[in-house]
Specification:
The complex is a heterotrimer, with two copies of chain A (about 200 residues) and one copy of chain B (about 260 residues).
Chain A: H1 20-33, H2 40-47, H3 51-68, E1 72-77, E2 80-85, H4 90-97, H5 107-119, E3 122-123, H6 124-131, H7 136-144, E4 148-153, E5 161-165, H8 167-172, H9 188-192
Antiparallel strand pairs in A: 1-2, 3-5, 4-5
Helix pairs in contact in A: 1-3, 2-3, 5-7
Chain B: H1 24-32, H2 37-47, H3 57-73, H4 80-97, H5 108-111, H6 115-141, E1 159-160, H7 163-182, H8 192-206, E2 208-210, H9 211-216, H10 221-237, E3 240-244, E4 251-255
Antiparallel strand pairs in B: 2-4, 3-4
Helix pairs in contact in B: 2-6, 3-4, 8-10
Classes of the chains: A alpha+beta (about 200), B mainly alpha (about 260).
Chain lengths: ~200, ~260, ~200
């Protein structure tokens, strides 16, 4: 690790440094090949380059995709970078893949997921408290779809299982990370507005 | 085997907005769409155009009970939680009917029997709105597609696991084990060697074979167990591998290409 | 099909023609999402356009990828078009593929790991007894991924080696300690049996 860093004294790195164009090519290829969003950290490790340099290369790349305004885009999602199609093309893509929008989550599942996303780690009784209704089958569905994961036992009476959201959750909802979720307090205005 | 697809979809903006229906069945569906008692309560409050901070508890309670009765009449199983809420509402209503202590005017606010319910409703509504936000996000995400499969994915058509998977898998093994142990061997239906041979022929002929389809052709547990062992054996010894196209998708037996580019 | 053709007499096509930029976007998206090289014929069918037009759009697209000389290229292969990484980047791509997260386990490995996790310390014959199949290669994989470790010999005939889960296992599955491993009872409140 340490060897890859050049210091002020000018110690040359062990290997030939690449120029930015070459690095950009490599980054694009890696983002494409990775089968899930690839983090800046992993890119930096594989390419043996500084993270800051990688960030600037990726950002340049994102901008160049925007400028080109082709059928593809690079997005930051679930803590990584991913190439995907642009929303404008969805009808054509769907016609090719012969898919319809996939089965949506039920209202109960979505509500349960919202509670878990904002209150994690959270237990089944705590979810019941907020939703006012049993959420058992919703939790099972969410576990099976891998949108939530177990987060260990809560150190309280009965040691209930705690749940939190998964990486798939971020991918599914197109979120960079959990901080990318709007604050729950932002929904207060909507909440107070009825009646 | 396959995880069941969720049958009903809904639309936040129209479907839950009001309960009107042409037919009984339709009404049943719409009534069934309330995510819980708090959801139903919010709907009724909105319907009455009431102020959430000053809920006309008598009216709302009557309306609430009317819906519970309607659901029962339509054979919609009313979750216990709906009944608990009904009891809570009745309790609040009766408390409201008690004559107020004229000396306790100052504490009126504090003593409002509706207070706790209002707090719960407000808290719940935030999450309901958050659920709507998630719904909108997933709608947008459905218009975005990742790349198709590429060669290198093949090396990785494996399952990434969570603790839940670990437990689920363990329970399945135990169930399978129990079945094997208690099973009596009635007669030799098809030997393991024959099973492996027929399995291999089919995989190599077609390039791949869906395990679920293959198992579905078998009739006895003995055959199933033999087939299962054959699958594991063939994966271990032949250039065949197990893969899943998606999480919880069917498991496919696929012939490994001898040469890779 | 015939309607989409405009002839010299100027018969208007049935639907609004797309401009070339829009068509190019759609073509790029379709090549990108297809699991296999996609033929001009299929592109023309999905997009309801002339094959000649599609050919020219694809060729333009191929040329633009060349001009950009990024990490990706569009190639004609097996009678279709495909996006792939450029050969110059293959060294980096290989390095990425080697760093695959070790969370990916085959079904056999996962089963073996589950048995070891719940029954530890456990010997190979005991695992065989429970799983009903040999687990040798799975155990090797799990040892390599350092998810399991040896736990000394069992004081019985043949003194077989015993296995248990490692510290990495705990980290990997986000567990504080082994007591944190969920039991079937933990999921009792969510829809009974999960098997």
């Amino acid at each position: 690790m340490a060897e890859t860093q050049t210091d002020a004294a000018g110690t040359a790195p062990a290997k030939e440094p690449r120029d930015v164009a070459e690095l950009s090519r490599a980054v694009e290829a890696l983002i494409f090949v990775a089968d899930e969003p690839i983090s800046t950290k992993l890119l930096a490790e594989v390419l043996e380059e500084d993270r800051e340099l990688i960030v600037s290369v990726v950002e340049e790349l994102v901008a160049s995709y925007e400028d080109r305004s082709g059928g593809l885009q690079i997005r930051e999602i679930a803590g990584g970078w991913q190439i995907s199609t642009r929303t404008e093309c969805h009808e054509d893509v769907r016609r090719l893949l012969k898919t319809r929008p996939s089965a949506k989550l039920s209202l109960a599942s979505l509500e349960t997921l919202a509670v878990i996303a904002y209150k994690q780690p959270v237990t089944v009784p705590e979810i019941l408290e907020i939703r006012g209704v049993q959420s058992a089958s919703a939790i099972k569905t969410l576990l099976e779809k891998r949108l939530i994961i177990t987060k260990g036992h809560k150190e309280t009476v009965g040691r209930p299982m705690q749940y939190g959201t998964s990486k798939e959750f971020l991918i599914h909802f197109g979120l960079k990370d959990l901080a990318d979720l709007p604050s729950i307090e932002d929904f207060e205005d909507i909440a107070g507005s009825i009646g | 085997m396959q995880s069941e697809l969720e049958q009903y979809t809904f639309d936040f903006h129209s479907e839950t907005a009001e309960i009107v229906a042409e037919s009984h069945d339709e009404l049943k569906i719409k009534l069934g769409e309330f995510a819980g008692p708090l959801d139903l309560l919010l709907y009724l409050i909105r319907q009455e155009q009431a102020n959430i901070f000053d809920i006309p508890i008598a009216t709302i309670t009557d309306e609430y009970l009317k819906y519970i009765r309607l659901m029962k009449r339509l054979d919609i199983s009313v979750a216990a939680d709906f009944l608990v809420m009904a009891a809570t509402l009745i309790e609040i209503k009766s408390k409201m009917l008690l004559p107020r202590d004229p000396l306790a005017v100052e504490e009126e606010e504090m003593d409002d029997p509706r207070r706790e319910l209002v707090d719960r409703l407000l808290e719940y509504e935030k999450f309901k709105a958050a659920a709507e936000m998630l719904y909108e996000k997933t709608t947008i995400e459905q218009a975005v597609f990742p790349r198709g499969k590429i060669e290198s994915d093949d090396n990785n058509a494996e399952v990434s696991a969570t603790v839940f998977d670990l437990l689920t898998v363990f329970e399945k093994i135990l169930a399978r084990h129990k079945e094997e142990v208690t099973m009596e061997i009635h007669r030799e239906e098809i030997s393991l060697a024959d099973m492996i041979r027929s399995l291999r022929d089919r995989i190599f002929a077609a390039g791949e074979l869906n395990i679920v389809d293959f198992f579905a052709e078998l009739h006895t547990r003995r055959e199933l167990v033999t087939a299962f062992v054959a699958v594991l054996e063939i994966v271990r010894t032949e250039s065949v591998k197990l893969m899943q196209r998606k999480t919880f998708g069917d498991i496919i037996l696929k012939k490994v290409q001898e040469q890779s580019g």
